[in-house]
Structures are given as structure tokens and as C-alpha cells.
Design the sequence.
């Protein structure tokens, strides 16, 4: 009497989607970032001054990402002669919540 074939045990791989997205975002050229996905913006001025804008907090007050985006764009344009560069800090949790369902839908039949 033959014994039934045993299925090999599947190994569970611990994949942290948040860390995966963090790595993906490091490699993406971020020209146009939706304001609602930003945590903060750090404006580095040519004199060495750093100005931090807590975008997430401002969105809680203003409620409209388009309005906040327009305000920030106008300020950056007005100050462009004294701005060395700008660092954008993305809210990875919000990116995951926004993009992951779309990614899952696209890849579900693969």
C-alpha cells in the first residue's frame, strides 16, 4: 500500500509592504508629488537656513490639497532666488494605501 504523497510545506516569507514601497520610492524620480502624499517639505536656502513646512499639518487646516499646492508653488516661485534646493518627504503609509490596491488589481491575474 503506497502512502499518499505529502505536499512540501510552503515557507512563509515575511514581506513588509511598507519597506518595499520605501525602497521603490527611493528609486522614483519625483517631479510632481501630489500634496496629499507629503509629510513635510524642507526648503534649503542659499544662506544655509532650513525651513521645514509640515504639509500634513497644513492639510489638516486647509483641507484642500490643490489650494495648498498652489500656495506652496507661489511661495517657492517668489523665493526661488534664495532657494538652494527643496527636499520632499513622502508619507509612505499614504502611498501604500493609494497605490497598493491599484497594483494588486493590475497584478491579480499574473
Sequence:
Amino acid at each position: 500500500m503506497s502512502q499518499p504523497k505529502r505536499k512540501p510545506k510552503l515557507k512563509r516569507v515575511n514581506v513588509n509592504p511598507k519597506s518595499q514601497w520605501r525602497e521603490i520610492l527611493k528609486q522614483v524620480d519625483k517631479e510632481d508629488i501630489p500634496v496629499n502624499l507629503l509629510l513635510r517639505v524642507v526648503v534649503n536656502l542659499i544662506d544655509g537656513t532650513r525651513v521645514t513646512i509640515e504639509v500634513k499639518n497644513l492639510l489638516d487646516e486647509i483641507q484642500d490639497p490643490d489650494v495648498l499646492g498652489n500656495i506652496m508653488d507661489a511661495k517657492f516661485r517668489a523665493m526661488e532666488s534664495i532657494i538652494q534646493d527643496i527636499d520632499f518627504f513622502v508619507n509612505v503609509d499614504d502611498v501604500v494605501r493609494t497605490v497598493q490596491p491599484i497594483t494588486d488589481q493590475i497584478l491579480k491575474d499574473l
User: Anything to note?
Assistant: The radius of gyration is 22 Å. The mean pLDDT is 81. The longest strand covers residues 38-45.
